[in-house]
Design goal:
Blueprint (H helix, E strand, L loop, with lengths): L8 E2 L2 E2 L12 E4 L15 H6 L5 H17 L3 H15 L4 H16 L3 E2 H12 L3 E9 H10 L4 E10 L2 E8 L4 H14 L7 E4 L5 H5 L3 E5 L3 H10 L3 E2 L4 E2 L10 H5 L4 H15 L6
Parallel strand pairs: 3-5, 3-8, 5-6, 8-9, 9-10
Antiparallel strand pairs: 1-2, 4-11, 6-7
Length: about 280
C-alpha cells in the first residue's frame, strides 16, 4: 500500500474509530480481467509494444491466440506461475520512459471498449449504498489505476515491478495474485476500517478463491469451470456479464503525474508473451 492509501481522518482519528454508533464501513472488491473488463488487460498492449520494438512479431501472434484461449478457459495456478517466471526474464532491461510513453499514447485506444456495462452498473450500485470500491488485479498498476479511476473506484491494487536506473530489473516488487490479493485486501481493510464479513468480492477465476473467501459476500462472475464448481458447492451467487461499453469519454487523458507512476507497466506488456508461454508451450509458430 502507498501512503496515499492511508485512511482519511476526522479530527485526527480514523473514520471507522470516530464514533461507535456510525455505520460499519464496507467495500466491494473487484477483480479486473473477465470480471470488470471483457478481455485480458495483460495481453492488450502487444500491438503497440510490437510497433515500438519491445516485442517481436512471434510474440504478437502468440498473444492473439493466447487471448482467445484465455477468454475460453482462463489461466490456472500452474499457468500463472509459469507466466511469472517467464516475465521476470522478458522485462529485464526495458527502458521505463519508453514504456511510459507507449502507455500514455495508446491507453484510450487499448481500453475502448473494455468495461462490462453490468460491472459498471454494479459498481455504481455499491457506491450508492455507501461502500468503497476497490479494483484488485494481477495486471500492472499502470493499467489498473486509470480504469479504476474511470469507474470511480476508491482504491486500486495491482502488481508492481522493480525499477533501477530507469530500467526494469526483471524483479517483481509485489505480485497481486492468489493469496497475495487476499492479504492486500486484509491490509487495506485494517487501514480503512472495513468489516470484511460485511464486504463483497467479485471474480471469474479459481485463482482468486482466497480473495473471495476473505469477505462475507463473495460472488463469481463469468466463472471458469473450476470456480463454477466451487461456487455451486458453496452456494455462491453466479453472475454473467456480456455487454462491454465504451469508456473513451469517461477516462481522462493521463496527466504527467499519472504517467510518472507507471513503474509496473512491464507486467501488462510482457504478459503478451508470458501468458502465451504458459498457454502455448506446446505450440510453435
Amino acid at each position: 500500500m502507498t501512503d496515499s492509501e492511508q485512511p482519511e481522518t476526522i479530527d485526527g482519528a480514523p473514520r471507522a474509530e470516530v464514533a461507535n454508533d456510525r455505520p460499519v464501513r464496507t467495500a466491494a472488491f473487484f477483480d479486473l480481467d473477465k470480471t470488470v473488463i471483457a478481455k485480458s488487460s495483460t495481453l492488450a498492449f502487444s500491438k503497440p509494444f510490437f510497433e515500438q520494438g519491445l516485442i517481436n512479431r512471434r510474440a504478437v501472434l502468440k498473444s492473439t491466440y493466447a487471448q482467445f484461449l484465455f477468454m475460453m478457459s482462463g489461466a490456472d495456478h500452474d499457468q500463472m506461475d509459469r507466466m511469472r517466471s517467464y516475465l521476470t526474464n522478458m522485462v529485464a532491461g526495458w527502458d521505463v520512459d519508453q514504456v511510459k510513453s507507449i502507455v500514455a499514447e495508446t491507453l484510450h485506444d487499448i481500453v475502448d471498449p473494455l468495461v462490462f456495462a453490468e460491472a459498471a452498473e454494479l459498481i455504481a450500485d455499491h457506491k450508492l449504498c455507501g461502500r468503497d470500491v476497490v479494483v484488485v488485479s494481477a495486471s500492472g498498476e499502470e493499467i489498473v489505476a486509470p480504469i479504476a479511476r474511470a469507474l470511480g473506484a476508491t482504491h486500486a491494487m495491482a502488481t508492481r515491478m522493480v525499477v533501477e536506473d530507469g530500467k526494469y530489473t526483471g524483479e517483481i516488487a509485489f505480485y497481486c495474485y492468489g493469496e497475495n490479493k487476499a492479504e492486500a485486501i486484509r491490509q487495506l481493510a485494517a487501514r480503512e476500517g472495513y468489516a470484511l464479513e460485511h464486504c463483497y468480492a467479485y471474480s471469474d477465476s479459481i485463482t482468486d478463491l482466497p480473495m473471495l473467501e476473505a469477505v462475507g459476500h463473495p460472488t463469481v462472475v463469468n466463472p471458469d469451470r473450476a470456480l463454477r464448481k466451487e461456487a455451486a458447492a458453496r452456494n455462491w451467487p453466479v453472475l454473467t456479464f456480456t455487454r462491454p461499453v465504451s469508456l473513451r469519454d469517461r477516462i481522462p487523458a493521463p496527466s504527467g503525474a499519472a504517467v510518472a507512476t507507471t513503474a509496473a507497466v512491464g507486467m501488462s506488456a510482457l504478459a503478451a508473451g508470458a501468458l502465451t508461454y504458459s498457454l502455448l508451450r506446446r505450440f510453435a509458430f
